[in-house]
Specification:
Strand order of the largest sheet: 1-9-12-6-2-5-3-4
Pfam families: Erythro_esteras
Distance between the termini: 31 Å
Structural class: alpha/beta
Oligomer: single chain
Number of helices: 21
Helix content: 40-55%
Strand content: 5-15%
Protein name: Erythromycin esterase family protein
Length: 448
């Protein structure tokens, strides 16, 4: 792009941008854009950036207080998040928000056990406690599928309470997985190459059996029983989909990605249906990575055959869904160097010159909101393919172009984007030695 054209686009973005100054009115234009939408998807450009969590939380608070949203659904496993759900609604024995986050013990632990999430869980509990007695309390739910064995335990625990005979039958079905204990990747490999029989039929049959007895189980003791049955049913559904996911991992990225995002979108649909059975229209805010929530059809992912939650939600809910992305130019991030490794405090390199992040940096604005639904020349220009950075739980700056960038058409990917030029790492509740001793200096501004 010639310099004169680049300068013209930079000036146009600067003119169209709504500057964020830290005031209570910052997101008024975003609230106007959202309007009466039922599903608001709020992304993040990394899984370890404080400002993405902080601003996403502030937007979510306004959606709850001003627009009647009653559920927060996040990129976390269903049983782990459901313990938080019980806490914020005041129906379990956890005394503190830290205790309620106690199920989040697997890699990447910092993604949900961090100070920003802790503060939000405390706020949500206080908000719910202050509601009138019969008001619907705001819930907190997980959409992901990595918790196969925890979900098996949850299904069995539920059936032990409501139907011991059915619990025995479920144990018999799920015993198929016992040979691999919790080594789900070994299960996936062994079944995909024919070294072991698949447990697919057992997982499917258990879900069907549970669903067949919906009326009997869910209506025993009113709404509490309905919620507990829904929790168990979603765990059974997770086991079925996770079993398929782990087998698919050895068939290629596209297959496993699509299974995972189909599961998350399906869980969201199930949550919406469950909430609407309790009366009133369900309104849900979703927190996930940009790569899950931006419409895949606008990206290289879609060109390769992948779809994602953002695409599926748009196809199902149309203009009742709003997709919001985040970006940053430089700063620090909490991330690992490899899957399963310790969290590190890493420096985020300045964005590549031909990226959206660099374009936004060149405006000179430290923070701004850009409405991508309002038409105009800027929206048209941002529909042209450009690099976009995605940092998940792993950050490899030495191979950044290959590992963390993909081409996308921003105006088709999101309805709005929030750019924060310089960001800092999210603070884990458990600080590892690698996180504490990183070389990012004390004066530095305070993974998919």
């Amino acid at each position: 792009m010639p310099d004169v054209t680049r300068t013209k686009l930079t000036d146009a973005v600067r003119e169209a941008a709504y500057r964020l100054t830290g005031t209570a009115e910052d997101y008024d234009p975003l609230m106007d854009l959202i309007g009466d939408a039922r599903i608001v998807l709020i992304g993040e450009a990394s899984h370890g950036t404080h400002e993405f969590y902080e601003q996403r939380i502030e937007i979510t608070k306004r959606l709850i207080q001003e627009k009647g949203f009653t559920a927060v659904a996040v990129e976390a496993d269903w049983p782990d998040a459901y313990r938080v759900n019980r806490y914020v609604r005041g129906v379990n024995d956890d005394a503190t928000a830290v205790e309620a986050l106690g199920e989040f013990q697997d890699f990447p632990i910092w993604m949900w056990r961090n100070t920003d999430v802790l503060n939000f869980i405390n706020w949500l509990r206080q908000y719910n406690d202050a509601l009138p007695q019969n008001a619907r309390k705001v819930g907190f739910y997980g959409l992901d599928l990595y918790s196969m064995h925890a979900s098996i335990d949850a299904v069995l625990g539920y059936l032990d309470k409501v139907d011991p005979d059915a619990a025995k039958q479920a144990r018999s079905r799920y015993s198929c997985f016992e040979h691999f204990r919790e080594d789900t990747q070994t299960y996936g490999y062994a079944t995909s190459v024919g070294l072991a029989e698949s447990c697919e039929d057992e997982a499917v049959n258990q879900l069907i059996e549970l669903q067949r007895r919906t009326a009997e189980y869910a209506q025993r003791d009113g709404q509490v029983a309905e919620d507990e049955f829904f929790y168990a049913e979603q765990n059974a559904r997770l086991v079925k989909n996770a079993e398929e996911y782990y087998r698919s991992m050895f068939r290629g990225r596209v297959s496993s990605w699509n299974i995972r995002d189909r599961h998350m979108a399906g869980t969201l649909d199930g949550l919406v249906a469950h909430l609407e059975q309790q009366g009133n229209q369900a309104k849900v805010v979703v927190w996930e990575h940009n790569s899950h929530l931006g419409d895949a059809r606008a990206t290289e992912m879609g060109d390769a055959g992948e779809f994602n939650v953002g695409q599926l939600v748009r196809e199902r809910y149309g203009r009742d869904a709003i997709l919001i992305g985040f970006s940053t130019y430089t700063g620090s991030v909490t991330a690992a160097s490899d899957w399963g490794a310790s969290a590190e405090l890493k420096r985020v390199r300045p964005a590549l010159p031909e990226s959206y992040e660099a374009l936004f940096h060149n405006t000179g604005l430290p923070r701004f909101l850009l409405n991508l639904r309002d038409g105009g020349e800027v929206v048209k220009e941002l529909r042209k393919p450009r690099l976009e950075r995605a940092i998940g739980v792993i950050y490899r700056p030495d191979t950044e172009r290959m590992s963390h960038y993909f081409r996308t058409r921003l105006s088709d990917q999101f309805d709005a984007v929030i750019h924060i030029d310089e960001t800092r790492a999210v603070e884990p509740l458990e600080r590892t030695a690698r996180w504490e001793t990183d070389e990012v200096p004390e004066t530095f501004p305070s993974a998919l």
